[in-house]
From TrEMBL:
UniProt-recorded Gene Ontology molecular function terms: endonuclease activity
Protein name: Uma2 family endonuclease
Gene3D superfamilies found in the cross-reference section: tt1808, chain A
Superkingdom of origin: Bacteria
Native species: Thiospirillum jenense
UniProt keyword terms in alphabetical order: Endonuclease, Hydrolase, Nuclease
InterPro entries the record matches: Nuclease_put_TT1808, Restrct_endonuc-II-like, Uma2
All copies of domain Putative restriction endonuclease, residue ranges: 12-156
């Protein structure tokens, strides 16, 4: 019986393939980018922009498509991730070695298990304080906060419910986020 090889960051960095990440010691192909995914990722970045600027609430490094090396066999690439500048005063470069303060994954068809279970458990173990999931096709967002070592739901939203168009969702509750814009109408231009 042949032993299962668990890959490391070195193996990942030496992989010639594009759009790959390291999950549980396996080099995994990231899903093909879809328009719905790209729009939600862009719109979330725009809405959270004030936190990454010198003016406004600021105090964050927010990045898209950033790889984070959590452990020997874990280096996922997050759709969106943020670090408080008080924990990470200088902008990181390359693969980041410090766990983020917030991660947002945009759930892709066929990759639901990775985002809703595998990464959920990894980030919980790594004590990432906030984890958001967005389902573009369902136009839904669920946000969790780490409480006593376990994630607890702090927001669950779907568009276009008028009562949910603008909400304050931690850790970005200093401003109202326009969920109607982030989750958007799939048919609107």
């Amino acid at each position: 019986m042949e032993a299962l090889k668990l890959y490391t960051l070195t193996d990942l960095l030496n992989t010639p393939a594009d759009r790959v990440e390291l999950i549980d010691g396996t080099i995994v192909q990231r899903p093909m980018a879809r328009m719905e995914h790209g729009l939600v990722q862009h719109r979330a970045s725009v809405e959270l922009g004030p936190f990454d600027r010198p003016t406004g609430p600021s105090g964050w490094w927010i990045a898209t498509e950033v790889s984070v090396h959590y452990a020997a066999h874990q280096c996922p690439t997050h759709d969106l991730a943020g670090w408080r500048k008080e924990r990470l005063p200088h902008r990181p470069s390359g693969v980041v070695e410090l766990a983020p303060d917030w991660v947002c994954e945009i759930v892709s068809p066929g990759h639901e298990r990775k985002d809703t279970l595998t990464l959920f458990l990894l980030l919980q173990r790594q004590q990432v304080p906030y984890y958001w999931l967005i389902w573009p096709e369902e136009r839904a967002l669920v946000a969790w906060h780490l409480d006593g070592g376990s994630y607890k739901v702090i927001a669950s939203c779907t568009a276009p419910n008028a009562a949910e168009q603008k909400q304050r969702i931690p850790p970005f509750d200093a401003i109202e986020l326009d969920l109607g814009y982030i989750l958007g109408d799939a048919g609107a231009g």
